[in-house]
Amino acid sequence: MSKPLILLTNDDGVNSVGLWAAYDALSEFAEVVVSAPAVQQSAVGRSISIFEPLRMNEVQINGHTAHIVEGRPTDSLLLGLYALDIHPDLVVSGINLGENISCESITTSGTVGAAMEAANQGVPAVAFSLQMNDHGDKFTDPRAHRIDFSTAQKAIRDLIPVFLKEGLPNGADLINVNIPAGEAKGYRVTTLGSRLFDTSVEARTDPRGKPYYWICGEVVHLNEHGTDVQGIMDGYVTLTPLTMDNTAYRACDALKDMVEKINR
């Protein structure tokens, strides 16, 4: 009996230790094809390169074949599907170095963005992200990390065979999984937290006297029961089902009332 086929991508780049930790776990029960960005592409969301050509190169990394795409995570996903002409049973994106939790993060995350594009193409997808105790570690070269991926790899071994066998739950287009730093207490199904950062812009001056800016912000901890933010804080692996439908259904009636007043 043939193994299921998984397309593996990420946003930290093809050399990220997180990508290859995921590969090691997945290859125990699946055939894995790697198509990932050549370099770090965090926070590019679901952007697609439509104004420039894309190059893909096949290389050997850690003794395994990988396809390096000179583009974004979504580009890597699309070239994996259509340039390589593969038909995966599932797309896995990650393991990302740094959690992708709350409404705020999933809209900018390249890890989640690639999984969203897979769902848009009709392929079920799961995104995996690992919490960093030191938020500065998110911005370190992803090849240089000395991180314990054992909890994240266990989550992959526990969850992916279930999704391969049973499919994603009805109504979910993709699953966003976040793993706490250290040992996990278990698994918890969550909703998205409302926010993660108190965003600010810091102005500085370069040696030539010209201004430049850093977009930054402090992490905020809102006590929102049942959310992915609270779940990670409580030490659980969080599973958040996501849908591509961004319609604000609760606002439809109120918006209809507004439009009716305009039409009178």
Can you summarize this structure?
With 264 residues, the chain is α/β, with parallel strands linked by helices.
Reconstruct the topology from this structure.
Layout: E1 5-9, H1 17-26, E2 31-37, E3 56-61, E4 64-69, H2 73-83, E5 90-97, H3 102-106, H4 110-120, E6 125-130, H5 150-166, E7 174-179, E8 187-189, E9 197-205, E10 211-219, H6 228-233, E11 237-242, H7 252-263
Helix pairs in contact: 1-5, 2-4
Q: Write down the secondary-structure element order.
A: EHEEEHEHHEHEEEEHEH
Calculate the mean pLDDT score and round it: 92
| Total number of domains | 1
pLDDT below 50 for ≥5 consecutive residues: which ranges?
A: none
CATH architecture: 3-Layer(aba) Sandwich
Q: Within the largest sheet, what's the order of strands?
A: 3-4-2-1-5-6-7-11-8
Largest sheet: 9 strands, mixed
Beta-strand percentage? 25-35%
Shape: globular
Number of helices: 7
Rg from alpha-carbon coordinates: 19 Å
Structural class: alpha/beta
Task: Report the top-level CATH class.
Answer: Alpha Beta
CATH superfamily: Survival protein SurE-like phosphatase/nucleotidase
Give the end-to-end Cα distance, rounded to a whole number of Å: 66 Å
Q: What do we call the CATH topology?
A: Stationary-phase Survival Protein Sure Homolog, Chain: A
Helix fraction, binned, reads: 25-40%
